[in-house]
Amino acid sequence: MEYIAEKYEAIVIGAGHAGCEAALALARLGKKTMLFTLNNDSIANMPCNPSIGGTAKGHLVREIDALGGQMGKTADITLIQSRMLNKAKGPAVHSLRAQIDRRMYQEKMKHVLEIQKNLDLRQAEVTDILFNEKNEVIGVKTNTNAIYNCKVAIVCSGTYLKGKIIIGEINFEGGPDGLFPANKLSECLKNKGIEIMRFKTGTPSRVNKRSIDFNKMEEQLGDEPIVPFSFETEKLEMIQHSCYLTYTNKKTHDVINRNLHRSPLFSGDIKGTGPRYCPSIEDKVVRFSDKERHQIFIEPMGLDTEEMYVQGMSSSLPEQVQDEMLRTIKGLENVKVTRTAYAIEYDCFNPLQLQKTLEFKEYKGLYSAGQSNGSSGYEEAAAQGLIAGINAKLQIDQEDAFILGRDEAYIGVLIDDLVTKGTNEPYRMMTSRSEYRLLLRQDNADKRLTPKGYKIGLISKQRYEKYKIKEHNINIQLKRLKKTVISPKITNNFLKKHGLNPVISGVTLDALLKRPEITYKKLYEIDSEREKFDIYTEEEIEISCKYEGYIKRQRKQVKQYLKMENFQLPNDLDYQIISGLRIEARQKLNKVKPVSLGQASRISGVSPADINVLIIYFDQLKRKKT
Amino acid sequence: MITDTTIAAISTPPGRGGIAIIRMSGKKAFSIAKKVFLCKTSFDNLSSHSITYGKIIDKNKNIIDQVMLVKLVAPKTYTKEDMVEIQCHGGNEVTKKILMLLFLHGAVLAQPGQFTKRAFLQGRIDLSQAEAVMDLINAETSKSEKAAILQLEGRTGKRIKEIRQEILDILSHISVSIDYPEYEDDAISIEKTKETTTKIIKKLKKLIENYETGIIIREGLTVVIYGPPNAGKSTFVNKVAGQEKAIVTHIPGTTRDIIEVHLNIGGYPVNLYDTAGIRKTDDLIEKIGIEKTISAIKNSSLSILVIDSSEVITPELIKLIKKAEVVVLNKIDLSNGEKYHKYLKGKKVIRTSLLNNKGIEEIEQFLLSYIETGGIEIDDIVITNQRHKQLIDYALASLIKIIKNKEQFLDLYAIDFNEALEALSQITGESASEDVIANIFKNFCVGK
Ligand SMILES: Cc1cc2nc3c(=O)[nH]c(=O)nc-3n(C[C@H](O)[C@H](O)[C@H](O)COP(=O)(O)OP(=O)(O)OC[C@H]3O[C@@H](n4cnc5c(N)ncnc54)[C@H](O)[C@@H]3O)c2cc1C
Ligand SMILES: Nc1nc2c(ncn2[C@@H]2O[C@H](COP(=O)(O)OP(=O)(O)OP(=O)(O)O)[C@@H](O)[C@H]2O)c(=O)[nH]1
Ligand SMILES: [Mg+2]
C-alpha cells in the first residue's frame, strides 16, 4: 500500500559526491530538503582511487570551495598525503592532489549532512519520479511505497542505475563495492521519454599492505608544507603517508596475452562505452605492445586499514588471471588481494537533454548531476551537484539561473561541454579542455567565484570580507610594483648576482619580476621594505605580475568569446523552419536548443556558415518587430 | 556587431573583360587604402563616389598596377561601412598581389557572403531579401568549400595536413605532460618542443615561398592532347611548353605513356598531357598506353585532338573528329587539309604547322580565353588559396613566437601552439580541441 509521507521543497536522489553537494547547497540556502541514498554507510563513497584532486580536478575542488561547496573542506580534514602537481610546468596548471582516508571521508561527510539544518537523510531506493500532466515534477516514490511530494528533484544516481558488475566471464547485477544496484528508476524515466545511455567504467584490485614488499618499489612522499584545498583552511600539519611506484614487466604482459580471450572487452560481452582515459591493463598491453613496462602506483586507502589501491591495474579479466598477473610485479610477488578488479556497466542520461542549469529541458523541476550525466570522477560529480543544487533553489524562488561561462570556471567548461557536445564515454575534466586556462587557475578560484558564492548565499560574510582584503592587498602590491623604480646600480648588482645581463637605466620592480629567472622571493633582496603577506597572496601577486602579458592575451580572446555568448537565442524556436540552415544543423540545433550563438557554434555539425545564417535570421526578426 | 574587422575580396571573376574589382569594407578601409594607393591628390581629399586614377605600390614602393579607385564614404555604401573599390587590370597574379597587400596592412579575407551579410545587418537589404541572403551564404560556402576540398586533395592539402598533425602531436605531448604528470616517460621538454617547432616553421615557410613564386602545383586546367599516331602531339606539347619534354620521331607510336607538363599560361596553372597515339594495335604496351589516353581524356578539363592534314581519312579518324570539340589541324605545310573541312564544321579549329612554329600563339590565346571565360572555376580556387595563405601566415607568426619565447614553463607554450593549430585547422576544416584529446589517448598510454 502506498502512503503519503512528508512533503519537501527539494529531494535529492543519491548521496554520492554530487548528491551531497546538491543537498547541502539546497539546505544551506534554506530549502527543506530530503536526501535519499541506497546505503547510509556508503555516503560520499570513493569506489575508485582513494584520492581527490589532480590535474584539472584540483581546480574543480578549488572552484567548488570558492562557491561555498563542501568537498574541499572535508578533503582537508581527511587527507593523508598531499602534493602540488606540475609545479615546474606553469602557474595555470599547478594542481592539488591528495590521498584521502576513504572511510573517514565518508563518515565526516555523513556527519556534515546529519547536522545540517533543513536537511533530512534517509536510506531508501527511489523507484519512480512523479510528474503532473505538464511534465512538472511533483514527487518521488520509494521502494517502501512511500510518496514524498516536492517541487524539485535532483537525480545523482552515479553508477547504480541497472548496475552490472563484470569480472571475466562472470557478471551479475550490482553497484560498486558490493552495494545493491537501483534497478527500477532508469526504466521508469525511460518510459517517461528520457533518453538513456549505457556506459562502462572499471576499477583495479585492492591488496593487503602486509603482503607487499615496499623495498622493491620507489617511495613517493607528500609535499611540505601542505597546501589545503579550502580557502577557509588556514594551515594543515600532519604526518603524511607515502605512495609507491612499481612497474609491470614482460612476465605480466605474457600472462595477459595468454588470457586475452577470456576478457569480456575483447569477446564483446561488455556493451557499455568505456572511457579512453581509463584503459584496462589488458587494453594498454594490447594497444601499446611495444611498451616494455607500465607504471603501477600503490596508494593507501586510509589510516585504519591495511588495504591499498593498485592504480594502473584496472582489469576485467577473470579473477584467477588477475591474481596471477599481479604476482608477476616487483614487490607484489606474494600479494594478497582483498578486492578483485571489476568493470561496471550502468545507465545514465544523455546530457544533451539538459539545460546549463542541469535541469531537463522537457521536465520542469527534474535535475540530474554527476555520473548520471555521463561524466566521471568525484570532483566532476561534486561540481555538478553544487550547480544543480543552487539552480534548483533559484528555481523554487523564481530567481535567475546561475550559469558559469567557459571563461569563468572549469565548472563552466564541464557543463557546457556536457550539454552542448554530449559525450560518448564517461567525461573526465582535463586542462586541455579549457581555452582560457591562464585565467582559470587554482590559485585565483576565490577571485573568480567567491563574490558569486557570496551573492548566492553560500559564502559567509566573514569569509567574503577576508577575500576582499586579499584582493585589495594584491591590487595595491601590483600597482606598487609598477610604480617602484630601482636605480641601475642596485638593479645591476642584483642582476649580476643572479647571473643576468646588466641594464642601463632604472627599471621597475614589475619589469624585473617579469623576467623568467626572477621570482617574487628573490625580489625581496632589493625590496626588503615591502609588506609581508601569506603565501597565497604572495603567490597570486607573483603570477598576476609575471604572466600579465599572457593573461591580457587570454582576456582579449575572452572578449571575442563573450560577444558570441551574449548573443542570446530563444529556447522555443523550431530550427526546421530556417531554410538557409543545412539539414544537419537544423536537427542538431533542435536537439541542443542552445542558449547563445556561442553555444550554437560549439555544436558539432553546425558550421560557421550556419552561424551566419542565424545572425541574419535573428536580425530579421528583430527588425520585423520594430 | 559580431565582427569589427575590415574585409576584402576579389568581387569579379578574374579575366572577365580584362578588369577585376577588389572590394574592401570596414573601419580600416581608408587607412589601408592610403598606404597602398598613390595618386595626385591626397587620399583624404578624394571625394566620395568618384573615380580616381592612380597606382598601387607595395611596401618597397614598387608599382604593382595602375588602377582606378573608388572611395565610398559610409553610410551611403553597400555595407553602410567605409568602402574602397579598386579596379585593376585583371590578370590573376596582379589582382592577387593587390589583395595580399591589403591583407598585409590589416584587412582580412571576406568569407563567402560576408559583404552581403554586412549589408543586411546594416539594414541595407530589406527583409524580403533576407531569405535569399541566407540561402546564398550556405550556397557560396559550399562552393568555396568544394574548391577548398579540391585543393586539399592535392599535394598542398596533404602537406598542410601533415604539418597540422605535427603541431597536434606536440600539443598533445604538452597536454599529456600536464594532464598526466605522473607519467614521466611521456613528458616532453621545452627544448625538444622548440626543436620540432623550428622544423615545422621551415616546412611552412617553404610552403608559402612556393605559393608566392607559383612553383606550387595547384589544381589548374588539365589539357589532354590526343589523336592518331604521328600527328604531331608531342611536337605540340614541346612547342607550347617551350621545352623538349617529349620525344619526337617520325615513327608512329613513339609516345607510349602519358607525359605530364606543367605550364603557366597568363598566370594560370595548366597541366598539359601528351598521350599515346590512338590506333588499333596488337602491341601490349601500346594498348595499355591507349587505354590510359582514353581515361585521361575523361578526367580532363579540356581535350584537344591533333590530326595530320596530309594523312588519309579513315573511318576511325572520322569517329574521333566527330566527338572532338577542339581540333588542331597540323602539318598544313604539307597539305591544306581541305578534305577535312566538312567534318570540322561547328568545331573550334586551329590550323598549325608546328614544326615551323606556326599557330603556337593562336593555341596559347585559345587556352587563355578558355580559362578566362569560365572554362574552369579558377576564381574559387584562387580565393581559397588566399585564405589559406593568410592562415598559414598566422600559424607561422604563432610558431615564431614559440621559438623566441624564453619562459621556463611548458604550459606557457601551449597558447601559441593552440593558435597555430587553430589556424591550420581552419584550412583543413578539422576541430582542434577534440583532436588534441583524441590524439592523447591514441598515442599515449596513460590512465589508471
Ligand atoms: C568501478 C568504478 C570505477 C570508477 N573509476 C573512475 C575513474 O577511473 N576515474 C574517475 O574519475 N572516476 C571513476 N569512478 C567514478 C566515480 O566514482 C564517480 O564519478 C563518482 O563517485 C560519481 O559521483 P556521483 O555523485 O555522481 O555518484 P556516486 O558516487 O556513484 O553516488 C551515487 C549515489 O546515489 C545513490 N543512489 C543511486 N540510485 C539511487 C536510487 N534509485 N535511490 C536512492 N539512492 C540512489 C547511491 O546510493 C549513491 O549514494 C569510478 C566508479 C566506479 C564505480
Ligand atoms: N611537316 C611537318 N611535320 C611535322 C609537323 N609537326 C610534327 N611533324 C613531324 O611529325 C612527326 C611526328 O611528330 P610527333 O610529335 O612525334 O607525333 P606524335 O603524334 O606524338 O606521334 P606518336 O609518337 O605516334 O605519339 C615528327 O617527325 C615531327 O617532326 C608539321 O607541322 N609539319
Ligand atoms: Mg608522341
Describe, in plain words, how this protein is organized in 3D.
The complex is a heterodimer of chains A (626) and B (448). By secondary structure, chain A is of the alpha+beta class. Chain A has four domains: 3-52 and 117-200 and 346-436, FAD/NAD(P)-binding domain, CATH 3.50.50.60; 206-344, Elongation Factor Tu (Ef-tu), domain 3 (Beta Barrel); 471-548, tRNA uridine 5-carboxymethylaminomethyl modification enzyme MnmG/GidA (Arc Repressor Mutant, subunit A), CATH 1.10.10; 567-625, Orthogonal Bundle (DNA polymerase, domain 1). Chain A has 21 helices and 24 strands. Chain A has a six-stranded antiparallel β-sheet, with no helix packed on it. A five-stranded parallel β-sheet of chain A has the order 7-3-2-11-22, covered by helices on one side. A four-stranded mixed β-sheet of chain A has the order 1-10-9-8. In chain A, α6 runs antiparallel to α9. Chain A is globular and about 85 Å long. The termini of chain A are far apart. Chain B has helices spanning 29-36, 92-104, 114-121, 127-152, 155-179, 190-213, 233-241, 284-298, 315-323, 360-375, 378-404, 411-428, 432-443; strands at 7-10, 20-25, 37-38, 51-57, 63-72, 83-88, 108-109, 221-226, 259-265, 268-274, 302-308, 326-330, 348-351. Chain B has 448 residues and is of the alpha/beta class. The two termini of chain B are 47 Å apart. The radius of gyration of chain B is 27 Å and the shape is flat. Chain B has 13 helices and 13 strands. Chain B folds into three domains: 7-126, Gyrase A, domain 2 (2-Layer Sandwich), CATH 3.30.1360.120; 130-210 and 382-428, Four Helix Bundle (Hemerythrin (Met), subunit A); 217-374, Rossmann fold. Helix content of chain B is 47%, strand content 16%. Chain B has a seven-stranded mixed β-sheet with strand order 3-4-5-6-2-1-7. In chain B, strands 9-10-8-11-12-13 form a six-stranded mixed β-sheet, with helices on both faces. In chain B, α11 (378-404) packs antiparallel against α12 (411-428). The relative contact order of chain B is 0.11. Classes of the chains: A alpha+beta (626), B alpha/beta (448). At the A-B interface, α18 and α21 of A face α3, α4, α5, α12 and α13 of B. Bound molecules: flavin-adenine dinucleotide, guanosine-5'-triphosphate and magnesium ion (MG).
